[in-house]
Amino acid sequence: LAKTTQPISMDSYEGQEVNITCSHNNIATNDYITWYQQFPSQGPRFIIQGYKTKVTNEVASLFIPADRKSSTLSLPRVSLSDTAVYYCLVGGPGAGKSTFGDGTTLTVKP
Amino acid sequence: NAGVTQTPKFRVLKTGQSMTLLCAQDMNHEYMYWYRQDPGMGLRLIHYSVGEGTTAKGEVPDGYNVSRLKKQNFLLGLESAAPSQTSVYFCASSYGLAGVETQYFGPGTRLLVL
Question: Which bin fits A94, alpha (ψ -120 to 50), beta or left (φ > 0)?
Answer without folding.
Answer: left
